[in-house]
Predict the structure.
Amino acid sequence: MRYAEWLGVLPGWSGMVDGKLEGRCVMRAPDRANPPRFCGVLQGEWGWSTVFKMTIKDILARSLSATGWLMLAVMAVMVPTSLLLGVLAGMREGSRTDRVLSTAAIATTATPEYVSGVILIAVFASTTVDLSWLVNLFGIEGRRTLFLGTATSAVDKITFWNFTLPVMTIALYGIGYIARMTRASMTEVMTQQYIRTARLKGVGFRQVVLRHALRNALIAPFTVIMLQFPWLLNGVVIVETLFNYKGFGWTLVQAAGNNDIELLLGCSVVAVAVVLVTQLISDVGYVFLNPRIRLS
């Protein structure tokens, strides 16, 4: 019944307590004397956070905005880099370039965020260096760490100094995974008959890759890239907690640690919505990349 009340398909409880009208809908009504019968998620009432003392909608709007900028920066770094590395490795299977890039991709994929994040902090945010030569050029302070080990200040103002490490921590894992998938797809495409025919006709190797192989090779990586959005929600839980970046993942950890049930439910709804929307975009985009799907 409480779950149905939270959804808004059953009337919210209300009754007289110590001579006052109390209940779920009464607390959320502008006019406490005339509360609505239904006051759940379907009516736009997400509830009240017992930890942050704010409405769930306000908390989610603030945290999703912060995480949205983080995801945007991660995708801007991760997608072009991983596709480039995957194409370079798959163009000439078994070459030295292929072996080096494949080894690096496996190493980054095998390293979880909580390990790579600590390593990046230890290497780039623990030692103060002399950057006085950049004072006049970029207005940077004379002595400081290469990057900031916490991203708390990035919630108010994003800078290259306070935002690089959390972005790289999430991107490193995804770069390796997408690069391996792109490399496998590119390797398969380069062995197809139409590629051999183009080469035998005298078409240059670069033209073969760009005009014939690349589009077909990007079909499988496109699906993997869209799958990164749900996986990024897992990554931001670790990274935002590690760097104290107060976004969606940090909010989810705070809600779980403080038994804030309504905030946990709100975060769950958002997570499910992200998965459904990204999978829909993936299916639609797959049809445009592979027209043969329409015939079948």
About this structure: The radius of gyration is 25 Å.
